[in-house]
Amino acid sequence: MNFFTELKRRNVYKVAVAYAVVGWLLVQVATQVFPFFEIPNWAVRLIVLAIVIGFPIALVIAWAFELTPEGLKRTEDVDRATEKRGKSHAWIYVVAVGVAISIALFILGRRMALNTASAARTDAATGSSISQKSIAVLPFENLSDDKNAAYFADGIQDEILTKLASIADLKVISRTSTAKYKSKPEDLKTVSQQLGVATVLEGSVQKAGDKVRVNVQLIDARADSHLWAKTYDRDLADVFAIQSEVAQEIADSLQAKLSPAEVNTLATAPTKDTAAYDLFLKGEYEQRLADSSLKAESFDQAAAWYRQAIARDPNFALAVARLVQNRIARHWFIEQMSEAELTQVRSMAEQAVALAPNLAQVHVALGQFYYHGYRQYKHALAEFERALQLQPNASAALEYSGYVHRRQGQWDRCLAELKRAFEADPRNASLAANVSNTYMPLRMWKEAGQAAKHSLELDPYAADGMRTLLGS
Prior knowledge:
Shape: elongated
Distance between the termini: 90 Å
Largest sheet: 6 strands, mixed
Strand content: 5-15%
Structural class: alpha/beta
Radius of gyration: 35 Å
Helix content: 55-70%
Order of helices and strands: HHHEEHHEEHEHHEEEHHHHHHHHHHHHH
Number of strands: 8
Number of domains: 3
């Protein structure tokens, strides 16, 4: 008897087709359903392997045995006439149903794969848009027994951030935005997305007498994994060295390219007098309260701390610059100074620049004086531009440049600068509202409304955002 005829008689062909269909069906179920239940991939591979191994076994069984109404029998024992009369085509329906289910699962799987791939591309695009050389320095936790020493922990964080901001090869988020977070937020991936950074620096400070301990850890925020961590146990007099070392290690870890001037900035201490620095940090803490409350007494208390710091170290340029900014902010928001007082503040601003011409903050302070004190926009812009040359991440200089150009009617330029400033300060509701305000004269109503809504998302009580949203 012809071999192929015998294969047909023994239903080997039918079994092969049915096995292939059912096997394909099982593979589709495994590949599409298992991931939904988070069943590991090795289980899918095991099923595929079992199907492959089982195929020749099924063919051998189909050759040797026959399924009859009386049960499984050897093919040689089956009565030919009975077999012929009892022949059924039910297997065709089984195969048809199997094929239909397989096709349905295949189509479903392709759609799920496309959706997954699309989501993956979106995530990848979001991740790839975040620079590897980007960082946010989160608030440092105060672990000192004296809970009133929070100002010192804030100061350590702020100085490290300022040093990093001087590196052109890094994207550094402004303190205004990082201050919105806890010292150790639970969901770093969300922080990464909200701030647009790849890494965050967490830290804590413990001050006791003339000793200080600083713990820092650099974290890949997207993967929530530690890159490095270090503890510094030093004398209080070495606090400036700690700040420089941390900034340098971060720059090295992120493979940032530093110019000789930037290397010098990282190594430079704002003062050599630790007592003056402590007084300065108390002034900074009070100044932040003044900026948020706009209370005259807070401005005056901050000014008193700055003056004490300057009295201990008359060459403390940063303290002089911050005193200038303090006086000008009070002049702008609280009570205008007399001409004599403005002249005195101008003298202080120029003194700060003379003491430290390569310090970005002194140029921002002088620029603010020209802007808020005398509306001398050309001089103000020159100082802000110099500040940005010295500290590329100086978002305040960008922001003030935008405000000056807005007063000059240069709306497009103003918008570009405020948007750049917002990239470095993405949780600043006031800045978002000002971006919205700038869209309106350009008749970009849709963008103005979106920016105003975003401002209110950042701060539901932002008055600027409410006004702009109503106007748009």
